[in-house]
Description:
It contains 11 helices and no strands.
Amino acid sequence: MLGFLQGFSYGLFMTCLPWLLVGLVNPRLAVGTETPARWQVIVRYCLVVPFIGMLLWLTSLWGGFGPSLPGWLAGIVAIPLALPLERRLRGWLRHRRERRLQAQREAESRQRRNRQAGEAQEAGVAILDPARPPVDADSLVLAMCRSKQGLLDASRPDLAVQADRLYSRYRHVLTVLSGRFDSGELAFERARGLVAEVCLGTVDTLNAMASQARGVASVDADFVRRRLATAGQRLGEEERAALMRRLELVEETERRLGELTARNESALTVLDDTAVAMARIETGRPQASLTTERALEELSRFVEGADRYGHGSG
């Protein structure tokens, strides 16, 4: 065994100089790192490998019968065999680290979007559950559930809350209409039809938002920005152009989603205006026999004459 180690150390010493020269010409052939440099070649074949060989040679001096041929041959082929293994090991570690970072980024992205969704949620808004729609849900409410599910599948809960807000407005407007008109009246049917058309248009917009969000769901903008920031000048022109194009796609999509969101906000405002306008309509018969102003006048006149009733009774 000691003779094998001694021969192995001699083989390493013999291959240091050839691999040093090869690495100075092309560092990728002599170093197993992703982006090798010539200083790494010098450090490896002038310091690290000779140190390992010296350590093995000193260890083999404790005994043995001189260097063995198998050890010498093993030392000669050690570096060319170790380089592919090193590249494979480094690649595996790099992919493992990237997968871990990707999972961490996805978790942070979900938390951020859930936080944004919570911040965007209005007070008193009913939450739609696409898996369990309301019992009395009509076709329009079911369409809202499908549009919300599409946005959730695209990992955009911050946009999915718009379906909840639309459902709340729709339900509120119908409640106001039911309180002001009878269900058989022509005005009720006309107003309900117009409200349904506005809501259907908003559902179409939500579906368009879900489609566009799915288009860039696989693009990690944060990773692209970090890649551009950390790699810097080491990136080639082709890779830099590809990364910049990804960012442009994400930014274009986000700009388009902002425009569609503004369109939905306009529709929600129209529904709010409708609810307020319908609430102001007085369609029922008054419960009091006198108007409020007339009742106030009669009550004031009664108070003025209250003393006269008191003197008469004395």
